[in-house]
Write a structure and sequence with these properties.
The chain is built from 6 helices and 14 strands. By secondary structure, the chain is of the alpha/beta class.
């Protein structure tokens, strides 16, 4: 499995490109702010063609570029997949942001908030299995950071990684290396996050590679042993 990652231009949100191999169809996960050009370079270099976009949740730093990714390029007519409970966020991902922050983004990135939803959006649910781009993806609903936060699990791990793991989880803003997603933003819920960590995250096998929405990759074994937010659960 080929997994490529690069940070967005704001909030260091990780955008992932996942494919069975170079020269194949791929999935784009969490296309954040200002990623379109870098994504084009990555796709060209590895001869990849996007088949769908997966969104771990609906915050603007994870979905900002979803519409151009879904609608730009040769024969681009891609579906964006997002959990049903975060589907409403695609109506206006900036609605919950401070107006001063929106103004700052507009100054830096242009009139980005003349927002339009991607033409094709499919709501996903807990335990759903997706067959996309030659990959099998399982959906795990893990609310707390937002109502519709999910993690995506794929069998196997990226080629060339220096750790032994049997599966890969694209964790969004549920779990980070040494931390977890914040719950003080609109739609956040501390108690729901604690339940998700206990019931969805902790049962993950130690040999699970975690690719978070921000920051470096980690493993479930490492997080179980060292992540202070998982202690006592």
């Amino acid at each position: 499995m080929l997994v490529l990652a690069f940070p967005a231009q704001a909030f260091a949100t990780n955008c992932y490109v996942v494919a069975p191999a170079a020269g194949e169809q791929c999935l784009v996960v969490d296309p954040g702010i200002g990623v379109v050009e870098q994504l084009r370079v990555v796709l060209t270099e590895h001869r990849l063609k996007p088949a769908a976009v997966l969104l771990t949740h609906g915050h603007v730093d994870h979905v900002h570029s979803v519409t151009p990714v879904c609608t730009t390029g040769d024969d681009a007519d891609l579906t964006a997949y997002i959990h049903a409970d975060d589907r409403y966020r695609l109506a206006d991902p900036a609605a919950s942001l401070d107006p001063q922050l929106v103004a700052m983004f507009e100054q830096q990135f242009g009139r980005a908030w003349s927002w339009r939803e991607p033409p094709r959006v499919e709501s996903i649910v807990d335990h759903q299995h997706l067959d996309l781009a030659g990959l099998g993806v399982d959906v795990a609903h893990a609310p707390g950071h937002t109502e519709g936060s999910v993690m995506f699990t794929l069998p196997g791990t990226p080629d060339g990684i220096p750790v032994e793991a049997e599966r890969t989880v694209l964790a969004g803003d549920v779990l980070f290396a040494g931390s977890v997603g914040r719950t003080d933003l609109p739609g956040g819920d501390h108690e729901a996050m604690m339940r998700s960590l206990r019931d969805v995250v902790l049962p993950l096998a130690d040999d699970t590679l975690i690719l978070p929405g921000h920051g470096p990759a980690t493993t479930m074994e490492r997080e179980r042993a060292t992540n202070p937010y998982l202690k006592g659960l």
